[in-house]
Amino acid sequence: MWRCCGWQAKGGNKYAKEVMQSWANAEWFTAKPKVAEKITTTVFFVKGETNTDDLSPAPDAWSRPDIPLHGLAMLKIAREGIVPDKDGEVGPIKQIEKLKSKGFPLAYVGDVVGTGSSRKSATNSILWFMGDDIPYVPNKRTGGVCLGSKIAPIFFNTMEDAGALPIELDVSKMNTGDVIDIYPYEGVCKNHETGAVLCKFALKTQVLFDEVQAGGRIPLIIGRGLTTKARKSLGLEASSVFRLPTAASKDKPAGYTLAQKMVGKACGVEGVMPGTYCEPAMTTVGSQDTTGPMTRDELKDLACLGFSADLVMQSFCHTAAYPKPVDVVTHATLPDFIRNRGGVSLRPGDGIIHSWLNRMLLPDTVGTGGDSHTRFPIGISFPAGSGLVAFAGATGVMPLDMPESVLVRFTGKMQPGITLRDLVHAIPYQAIQMGLLTVAKAGKKNIFSGRILEIEGLSHLKCEQAFELSDASAERSAAGCTIKLDKEPIAEYLKSNITMLKWMIAEGYGDKRTLERRIASMEGWLAKPVLMQADPKASYAATIEIDLNKITEPILCAPNDPDDARLLSSVQGDKIDEIFIGSCMTNVGHFRAAGKLLEKYPGQLPTRLWIAPPTKMDAALLTEEGYYATFGKVGARLEMPGCSLCMGNQARVGDKTTVVSTSTRNFPNRLGKGANVYLASAELAAIASILGKLPTPKEYLEYAKKLDATAADTYRYMNFDQMASYQKIADKIEISAEARKAAQKLHG
């Protein structure tokens, strides 16, 4: 249509020329009001940390596409300074309306804002009460102001996408009900009545002004691009209307980090330095079911009839086990929507998005996903809200202001009984010791926030193990994560994954062409296995050294904060009521280990044990090997493969219980109302289920020794190419010449 308009304009069509000239003049942008010199707002202050569970509660995930309805659940759990209309059901609507009666729009203000999941629904909820109507678009709002001493990076980006103005600044002198004047161009905030300066600040980027004026980052990118095309078609010079993102420096740095090289490759350059705006190619994009309906709506808004990203995958892991009627409709309709655009759709009951998507990855490539735990163990991903995920899938690129990196380097040798989960928790533990991370929310310090976590010193890890580390970078509020791995475990992983993808084709999964193309790309890498490496002189915002020799007891994260890493000895003896072994942080080896610890226990456990394998393939293998019989014997509750308790929107633990969980995070009320949740390894969780308490380090090590003799078999990962039931089916699948040609064109 755009080309047609251009041709008609050149052919003398007066109306077509007017349209082209309007776009060339950027009238779509200039007709909208600029960001005001002074913004007067009433403060709505939420003390401590606001996570996306608070703003978009998981049990209400079914209503996310209906923004006004879903918004009623925002902050529905009472907390200091927040008075819900009906505790646990309806948020502080009356409190919000009373503040609005002062005559000014509200600003959402907090110590730490937006940690946790990549939920655009959280942004939607805030803007429904504090944003501006969009002409001719019902039940959706834009604009609004969000202030925080720390704003989580995914949430910040989602606010940008929605046309809001997010600002990180000192909020210590602000309280609910205060009226403040924000001077965004000057970078100062004042008390409206007295004129006293409350704080000074600097915007993340001056482009924020254009994003707000355009109604969001995505409309700005699309509109700016069309203006450029119109001017080029009319023979005009580049527009001077827009503020331009930070361009790449012409000076070559002393070295690039691994992440900077991966993003550089996706942009067609050697590397991308921090602060540079870029639009890397999205090789792999993931979508899950509680955000999928919103992603679908965003794709419709973008008029997307076919994905430009090489592989887009949709899962149903968050709602399959206990679907509501609206979820059943989603299960029936969303797969065809995705497949018809060339994407790959899983099926309800298949399991967790990440456990599948990781098996579709290509080394040293870049991707994204509508789940904060889309954290690739090979390559790098930048998780995002549903709007940006839709944009990435539709256009094949994603806007990115390249973050700085923090290097975490492991040295030494792992000690007896210590697990990968302990190393996951060793990262925040060591950062706390170094003064780079604080648990307190007021004046929060977090060296990882908004930066890329780059991990070295564990290159021998299997990819399944590496994912435990990259997955948990979400809890650090990191923008992304890379892990330096050897070629051998990656080659082993890809060989296994080729078999799995061929098995998927044979089982009728689609889009077949996309799966074939990805298989061909994997085979291409295996034929020429080359991995990027960080340059020795690469620069990092901080370096954290962790000596494995000094980690001699398990490290847990205490209730209810994934930053609150503590040694087992400091929390030993705490009574435990329930245990959850599941989530994307687990693999088949964890369930075998738990089974071996439980197999000799007589009778029923003194605790309530939940078991939820990550995929249906894990569940089938554990059943075949007899572990399900063991779990049943001790009275465990066996859940459908998937997210289960982890998100908190399906089954839940008892109110005010104390829990040991292998899940990703332990925010207040996430697993159960008033529950106190420890995050720990599957091994420690199994021992706690037996003892009914957190063991002492000595007790733990005595149990852990029982796993040593069979460790090689216990922690044997699912290599599908070595499993006859999968390989026999995969052998029947031939990859088309068309798919191989397409893969060669995409990846060389």
Keywords:
alpha/beta, seven-stranded mixed β-sheet, 27 helices, 27 strands, about 750 residues, five-stranded parallel β-sheet
Secondary structure: number of strands = 27
Measure the end-to-end span. Answer: 32 Å
Write down the overall mean pLDDT. 96
- Shape call: globular
- Let me know the largest β-sheet: 7 strands, mixed
Instruction: Kindly state the percentage of residues in helix.
Output: 25-40%
Number of helical stretches of at least 4 residues: 27
Instruction: Work out the radius of gyration.
Output: 26 Å
Structural class: alpha/beta
Low-confidence stretches: none
**Sequence of strands across the biggest β-sheet:** 6-5-2-1-7-8-9
Report a brief summary of the structure.
By secondary structure, the protein is an alpha/beta fold. It contains 27 helices and 27 strands.
Topology (elements, then pairings):
Elements: H1 2-10, H2 14-24, H3 27-30, E1 39-51, H4 52-55, H5 67-71, H6 93-100, E2 106-115, H7 120-130, E3 132-134, E4 137-142, E5 145-151, H8 153-161, E6 165-168, E7 179-183, E8 188-191, E9 197-200, H9 207-214, H10 217-233, H11 258-267, E10 277-278, E11 284-287, H12 292-301, E12 311-314, H13 325-339, E13 344-345, H14 353-357, E14 366-369, E15 380-381, H15 386-395, E16 400-401, E17 405-411, H16 420-433, E18 452-456, H17 463-471, E19 480-483, H18 487-506, H19 512-527, E20 542-547, E21 555-557, E22 565-567, E23 578-582, H20 588-598, E24 608-612, H21 616-624, H22 627-633, E25 637-638, E26 658-661, E27 676-679, H23 682-691, H24 697-704, H25 711-714, H26 724-730, H27 737-747
Parallel strand pairs: 1-2, 2-5, 5-6, 11-12, 11-14, 12-13, 14-15, 17-18, 17-20, 18-19, 23-24, 23-26, 24-25, 26-27
Antiparallel strand pairs: 1-7, 3-4, 7-8, 8-9, 10-16, 21-22
